[in-house]
Amino acid sequence: MTLIQRIGANSSSFKVVGGFVLAAVVLFGIAPSMLSDFRLSLLAKFLCFAIVAVGIGLSWGRGGMLTLGQGVFFGIGAYVMAMHMQMADAAKAHEDVPEFMSIAGISELPSYWRPFASAPVAILGILVLPAVVAAVLGFGVFKRRVKGAYFAILSQALAAALAILLTGQQTIGGFTGLSDFKTFFGFRLDDPVNRRMLFFIAAGALLVVVAIARQLMNSRYGELLVAVRDQEERVRFLGYDPANIKIVAYVVAAFFAGIAGALFTPIVGIISPADIGVVPSIAFLVGVAIGGRTTLLGPVLGAIGVAWAQTTLSENFPSAWTYFQGALFIVVIGFLPAGLAGLWPMAKQLVERVRPAQDSGPGVGAGPAITASVVSADAPADETAEPETPVDEAKVKA
To answer: What is the value of pTM for the model shown?
Structure first.
């Protein structure tokens, strides 16, 4: 590696470290000191959406897989956490079943609840179950070369099916879902200090998820993922199986969504089928598209910004927010395909175009610059190029 390459690599590393340090200062220092407890809890909720968005950015932005069903994996993580918290509260109150089951007349704990009474098993389920489900679905879909709109419709149908299934299950809360949690791994949720702890956990999880996504995007696997998105048949011709590459991205996105769902449950205090169906899955996607799906931070900022705007504007304009969100989505898709993250490269290109025009104005050195640009653009190549030195064919052959 040359000296210039080393300097460039070190400069890039410094920028990455500086970015993470700045994000940590904002999340762990500035936000808790400036926001009230209520607004800090809202920001923690938005961070959960941002974690989901990072996975969508990896699978959709880099892999070209339009994932309209991330609510499935979000819901798996959320419900596993909710079941553990319900059983922990019941055990603390010396009850055999959670309170909502007693009200519904259910006296025996369902068999599929019992494993999640253990905290380690619940954490393992949150981390493993969404990834396993995504691996099974991905294997069945991508190995059959299902892609494009067909994959998007299928993933959306899965989210709708899960929401309908949960709605009819009274042993898991039915339509109203699970709520009224008292503790989170032994910490009382009505304590403001513990509420702040949840925000810090969500902030730390987001930083870790972004670091993992960046490592994947900048690795050889990330290059293969982009190649599969752009030229799948060429990748197959080179000896790689595009299905395996897609499955990995799909599983990682599901893994992130499961973590986000598990954090969402204690932060918000409720999880229901309405939080994991088709509409929430599309809302995840809208934030990613508006922020910039092909970038690393675009999905994060887009998800947080859209969620914040929805909360703020819906308080003042309850009936107009939906129209504003739709109009913003149409404008971004129609005029900013790269999302709001593409504004900076566009502004940079505009400055680079304006700068030569300013340099070619009246002043010293303007004449040669104009002459060179005009000649290179309009004159034939043989008139502008220097005369070639005659080649002695006899010497070449000798």
So the answer is: 0.83
